[in-house]
Specification:
The complex is a heterodimer of chains A (214) and B (381).
Chain A (H helix, E strand, L loop, with lengths): L5 H7 L13 H9 L3 H23 L2 H18 L9 H19 L21 H18 L4 H12 L4 H8 L3 H19 L3 H7 L2 H4 L1
Chain B lengths: L12 H27 L10 H21 L11 E4 L6 E5 L2 E5 L4 E6 L5 E7 L1 E6 L8 E5 L2 E13 L5 E13 L2 E6 L2 E3 L41 E2 L27 H20 L1 H14 L4 H14 L3 H14 L6 H14 L3 H14 L6 H6 L1
Parallel strand pairs in B: 5-7, 11-12
Antiparallel strand pairs in B: 1-4, 2-3, 3-6, 4-5, 6-8, 7-8, 8-9, 9-10, 9-11
The chains are: A mainly alpha (214), B alpha+beta (381).
């Protein structure tokens, strides 16, 4: 015997089930999210989360902070989506929000000097050796200690460019400034990091390329 | 230095699911609070988590519905003050009787209702834009930002509290009171407190839009450079009670011997930072600030000129961009950023339709910076 389905029940009272279409384009997805469609919101979150998480993590260097800031970013995204005008790509707009959230966090936590223990995640290309992993973790910890000394703008510009692998133009677009300003910020950050690296072999190993090391 | 430092973010599904769960719980709580607030505005903000607040507000909503549906006599005559706070990067629109208010990024504003229907907005931080119905014979509408009070006579205007108080009037007329003085500020005018120190004289007159108002006999003092640039017209004192500070005479050429002081350098740096921030929201203001730094700043002139060229290009003003680049070349032939300058020169010439000169600029760029950031793009064009 076939179980009595929900659509059968509804048809008995003169109603029929209308399948909700899955949004195909950004515009459809945005419209559905604005309308409060939780499924569409989850879809958007899952699509964008990995990039936002990676970007935020690479700036702040803490998995716990990255989780909190990622969450804050998406709350701001869903609350502000109605104001998205489509001037930039949706992903760029979300990245801009993430950067604002990160700036706010960095400014608010400027006086907290220490870094959390979970500053380091997995490190690509270090192999399975526990020693190598620990070594690389220490190097990264030193890097984020150096970055903590910088202004939020310089830190974000450097992290987006040198760690997240974005182009200067992309960094300018996301941080909503000029390419010249971005170059200045990266230059300042790089100078600070290299100054520290000159007195710190671990950091030097992480940031200097092979030619410089020779 | 390495081209890229590898830092792999944590990517476990469990972590993503945890963030997702918390996010949607919080979104649901926010929606709940919004629904309840639509019924009754929160009397007082507290810092408890939203989901606890939602429960409390829901209970209050039920109580309010019961009270309102009984008889109207329990309704308080004067609503309690409410506070609107926007996060950094966020804005919020709300209405008060007879006015639509937009609170800008990082703003805190309290709405107070008087017993005679008067509305007072107290700006603790940030800036608000007000679109107010004509208020002749109506209870007053005031905005207070620190010791500055703005009284409205039907208008669209903006009041900023930070970084320094400023009132911009888009339509109509307002009365600004501060330190015992009153000013009437009309459409197109801006008001800021008088500047007594660190005055940056006005940029070149050619940049100012033509004004039909009779010009002041002496140049007006510019606002502090740490604020957005002035509106086309400056405030007209209704009954000036204090003498305006006498502006400094603009000097054509500063002697180069004087080294900038730390304060001057900080001022220039701060102005540059503000101009940077304004580039997206108001590129024209950003351009004016850059021009101001280039003319009067200490220590940031070269970078300001390059940024000015970039902003002018974005504003589709290639001639102005080219002028900035020429000035850069003349004043700072050995400064960095010449690569950007060379690229912007090409862009400006190309936009102006000067194809031969653009081609020469492109060749110059490629000769000087064969592996520069824009070299591949130039070779492709």
């Amino acid at each position: 015997m076939t179980p009595f389905s929900r659509s059968d029940t509804l048809s008995c009272v003169g109603l029929r089930v209308v399948e909700k279409p899955v949004p195909q384009t950004d515009d459809e997805l945005i419209a559905a999210c604005i309308a409060g469609d939780a499924q569409a919101q989850r879809l958007l979150f899952r699509r964008e989360y990995a990039r936002v998480n990676a970007t935020v993590y690479r700036i702040v260097g803490s998995a716990r902070d990255a989780d909190d800031l990622g969450q804050e970013t998406f709350i701001a995204v869903f609350r502000g989506l109605a104001r998205f005008r489509g001037d930039a790509k949706l992903s760029t707009w979300i990245d801009r929000i993430a950067i604002r959230v990160v700036f706010h966090h960095l400014r608010a936590n400027k006086r907290k000097p220490s870094l959390p223990i979970d500053v380091i995640g997995d490190i690509e290309g270090t192999g399975g050796s526990v020693d190598d992993q620990a070594h690389a973790r220490d190097g990264l910890r030193r890097l984020y200690e150096a970055l903590a000394e910088l202004s939020p703008e310089s830190r974000a510009a450097f992290a987006l460019f040198a760690i997240d692998g974005r182009s200067i133009a992309e960094v300018a677009q996301i941080t909503q400034t000029t390419t010249v300003a971005v170059k200045c910020r990266i230059w300042r950050a790089r100078r600070e990091v290299m100054k520290r690296a000159s007195a710190d072999p671990l950091l030097a190993e992480l940031v200097r390329d092979e030619e410089e090391s020779r | 230095m390495k081209n890229r430092i590898i830092v792999e973010p944590p990517t476990s599904d469990a972590r993503r699911e945890r963030v997702e769960r918390k996010l949607f719980e919080q979104l649901a709580a926010v929606r709940m609070v919004e629904r309840v607030e639509a019924v009754i505005p929160p009397a007082k903000k507290n810092r408890t988590p939203l989901w606890f607040g939602a429960g409390a507000l829901a209970a209050a909503a039920v109580l309010a519905v019961v009270l309102f549906s009984g008889n109207g006599s329990t309704t308080p005559e004067v609503p309690a003050p409410t506070r609107v706070v926007t996060p950094v990067g966020g804005t919020s629109q709300f209405t008060v009787p007879g006015a639509l208010i937009e609170a800008r990024s990082d703003t805190s504003v309290e709405v107070q209702h008087g017993s005679n229907g008067a509305i007072t907005l107290v700006v603790a931080r940030g800036a608000i834009e007000c679109n107010v119905e004509h208020r002749v014979n109506k209870a007053p509408f005031r905005v207070i930002a620190g010791d500055v009070t703005v009284e409205v006579i039907g208008t669209i205007f903006t009041v900023a509290r930070t970084p320094i108080p400023r009132v911009d009037v888009a339509r109509g007329k307002v009365r600004v009171s501060s330190g015992g003085n009153d000013w009437l500020v009309e459409a197109g005018e801006a008001w800021t407190p008088s500047v007594t120190a660190a005055v940056i004289p006005k940029p070149e007159p050619k940049d100012e839009p033509a004004s039909e108002e009779a010009p002041s006999p002496t140049p007006e003092a510019e606002p502090l450079p740490s604020e957005p640039q002035p509106a086309p017209k400056t405030q007209s004192p209704a009954k000036p009670k204090v003498e305006e500070p006498k502006p400094q005479e603009p000097k054509a050429e500063e002697p180069k011997a004087a080294e900038p002081t730390k304060a001057e350098r900080d001022l220039a740096r701060e102005t540059y930072r503000i101009a940077n921030k304004l580039e997206q929201s108001d590129p024209q203001k950003a351009a004016q600030l850059y021009r101001s730094i280039a003319t009067n700043g200490k220590g940031m002139e070269a970078v300001a000129l390059v940024s000015l060229a970039e902003v002018e290009l974005r504003l589709k003003h290639p001639a102005e961009a080219l002028a900035a680049l020429d000035e850069l070349k003349k004043r700072f032939p050995n400064k960095p950023f010449t690569e950007d300058a060379a690229w912007f020169r090409y862009e400006a010439l190309r936009t102006m339709g000067k194809r031969d000169e653009a081609r020469t600029a492109a060749a110059d760029y490629l000769r000087q910076f064969p592996s520069g950031a824009y070299a591949d793009r130039l070779r492709g064009e």
